[in-house]
C-alpha cells in the first residue's frame, strides 16, 4: 500500500492544504493513489523548473557556463575537487566567501557563474554585478528605478558575485562607496569577488592601504581563494579570421 505521508508532504509543499488535511478520509485504490502521487510530483517538478529559471533571470549573469564546461587541465592551483566542494550549498549557508584571482581570459567569470548556477539549483538567490555597474546603481538608485531594484535584490540575495575589481581606476569618492557596500554585504551574505590583482595590489585599487587591508582581512576570514593561472583561454583557442572562413 502506498505511503500517504509522501502525498501529504507534496500537497503541503504545493499549498494544497485541504488535500493534505483530508487525505485520511479519502477512499481510493492503490492505483489511484499512485496516479495522484505522479500528478503531484509532475506539478512540483514544473514549479521547481519555473522557480529556477526565474532565479537565473534575476541573477543577471553575463552568460551561462557550467562547471562541466570549465577547462581544469590548464590550472595548477584549482581543481575539479575545489569546484565540486563549492558546488555544495553549505559554504553559502555558513556565510563564507570565495576570492577568484587571475589574469585575463583564465576563466574567472566562467567559474564564478558556474558556482552561481549551482547555488541556484539549491534554491539560493544569486546576483551578479561588476564593480562599475554596482557603483552606477549606488549613484542612480533614487533616479533610475532599475538601479534601485538591483540594489534591493543584491541586499536580498544569498550569494553576491562582484566582478572586475581592479579592472578600472576609481577615484576616492567611488572607492569609499565601494568599500562601504562591500563591507556591508560581507556582514550579511556570501560573496564571490573576482579580480585580476593579487592581494598586494589591493592598496592601489582602494588608494588606501589601511582600507584595503581592512576589507581584505574581513573577506578572507572565512574564505576559499582560487588563483587561476595559465595563458588566456581566448588566446589558446583563437583562430584567425581567414582560418574561420576556410
Q: How does this structure look, described?
A:
The structure is a single chain. This protein has 2 domains: 4-59, no CATH class; 67-236, P-loop containing nucleotide triphosphate hydrolases (Rossmann fold), CATH 3.40.50.300. The chain is 55% helix and 12% strand. The protein contains 13 helices and 5 strands. The chain has helices spanning 4-13, 17-22, 30-59, 80-86, 90-93, 108-121, 131-140, 145-156, 172-188, 202-206, 209-219, 233-236, 241-245; strands at residues 97-102, 126-130, 159-165, 190-195, 223-228. A 5-stranded parallel beta sheet has the order 2-3-4-1-5, sandwiched between helices. The termini are far apart.
Please name the defining characteristics of this protein:
246 residues, 2 domains, alpha/beta, Rossmann fold
In short:
55% of the residues lie in helices and 12% in strands. By secondary structure, it is α/β, with parallel strands linked by helices.
Largest sheet: 5 strands, parallel
SSE pattern? HHHHHEHEHHEHEHHEHH
Question: What gyration radius follows from the Cα positions, in whole Å?
Answer: 23 Å
Side-by-side strand order of the widest sheet:
2-3-4-1-5
Distance N to C terminus: 66 Å
Count of helical segments?
13
Low-confidence regions: none
Looking at this structure, what is the CATH superfamily of the largest domain? P-loop containing nucleotide triphosphate hydrolases
CATH class of the largest domain: Alpha Beta
Assign the CATH architecture of the largest domain: 3-Layer(aba) Sandwich
CATH topology of the largest domain: Rossmann fold
β-strand amount: 5-15%
- Residue-averaged pLDDT: 89
Number of strands: 5
Q: Choose one word for the global shape.
A: elongated
Amino acid at each position: 500500500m502506498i505511503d500517504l505521508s509522501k502525498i501529504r508532504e507534496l500537497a503541503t509543499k504545493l499549498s494544497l492544504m485541504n488535500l493534505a488535511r483530508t487525505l485520511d478520509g479519502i477512499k481510493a485504490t492503490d492505483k489511484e493513489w499512485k496516479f495522484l502521487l505522479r500528478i503531484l510530483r509532475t506539478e512540483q517538478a514544473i514549479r521547481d523548473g519555473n522557480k529556477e529559471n526565474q532565479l537565473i533571470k534575476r541573477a543577471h549573469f553575463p552568460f551561462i557556463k557550467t562547471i562541466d564546461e570549465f577547462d581544469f587541465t590548464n590550472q595548477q592551483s584549482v581543481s575539479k575537487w575545489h569546484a565540486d566542494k563549492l558546488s555544495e550549498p553549505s559554504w553559502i549557508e555558513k556565510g563564507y566567501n570565495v576570492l577568484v584571482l587571475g589574469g585575463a581570459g583564465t576563466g574567472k567569470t566562467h567559474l564564478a557563474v558556474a558556482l552561481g548556477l549551482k547555488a541556484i539549483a539549491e534554491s539560493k538567490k544569486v546576483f551578479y554585478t561588476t564593480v562599475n555597474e554596482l557603483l552606477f546603481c549606488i549613484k542612480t538608485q533614487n533616479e533610475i528605478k532599475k538601479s534601485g531594484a538591483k540594489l534591493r535584490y543584491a541586499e536580498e540575495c544569498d550569494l553576491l558575485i562582484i566582478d572586475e575589481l581592479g579592472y578600472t581606476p576609481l577615484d576616492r569618492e567611488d572607492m569609499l562607496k565601494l568599500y562601504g557596500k562591500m563591507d556591508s554585504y560581507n556582514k550579511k551574505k556570501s560573496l564571490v569577488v573576482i579580480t585580476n590583482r593579487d592581494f598586494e595590489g589591493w592598496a592601489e585599487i582602494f588608494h588606501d592601504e589601511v582600507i584595503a587591508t581592512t576589507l581584505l582581512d574581513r573577506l578572507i576570514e572565512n574564505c576559499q581563494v582560487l588563483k587561476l593561472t595559465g595563458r588566456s583561454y581566448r588566446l589558446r583557442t583563437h583562430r584567425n579570421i581567414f582560418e574561420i572562413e576556410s
